[in-house]
Amino acid sequence: MKATLLTLGLLSCAIAPAWSDTQFQITCPGRPTMTISRAAYGLSTLTWPQHHFQIAAGQQHTRLKGGDSVAITRFRNGDQLIVNKASEETFFVYRNSNRLLPCSRSETRDVDQLSLEPYDDRAHPHS
Where are the alpha helices (DSSP H) in the chain? Predict the structure, then answer.
């Protein structure tokens, strides 16, 4: 009996999907195409060309007056990503603005989880 349970446990580990992140791209007026990555634990990243990078923790879920459910991701620089959960319509609000911009969006795809290696900068003096 123990051997059967152990075998089933090992098989379930082997066939269970690995944790993965999801990623999609949005194109909005006023900025090059942006890539949104979401981790299973709630971290979102926003990147766009020329080495721009922002992070957000979690999403705020709310309903519009018409009843549609929306998810709002607030990035650390003040940018906001708004997604209508029913229609997948995607909007963006740039920091220091209250203008809601419609964006085109790619399909969401799974990407492998990224493991960051420790970086030792003791050999490099700070400027």
Answer: 2-15
3-state secondary structure of 45: strand
Alpha-carbon torsion angle 41, 111, 63, 56, nearest 10: 50
What are the DSSP calls for 90-119, one per residue?
Answer: EEEE-TT----EEEEEPPPEEEEPP-PPP-
Each residue's pLDDT expressed in tens, for the chain with a length of 127 residues: 555 544 444 444 443 444 448 999 999 999 999 999 998 888 999 999 998 999 999 999 999 888 889 999 999 999 999 999 989 999 999 999 999 999 999 988 887 765 656 767 677 666 4
pTM: predicted TM-score of the whole model, two decimal places: 0.71
Distances (CA, A) of 60 to 4, 69, 73, 99, 115: 44, 11, 6, 19, 27
Q: CA 38 to CA 57: how far, in whole Å? A: 10
Pair of tokens at residue 76: 């650390």
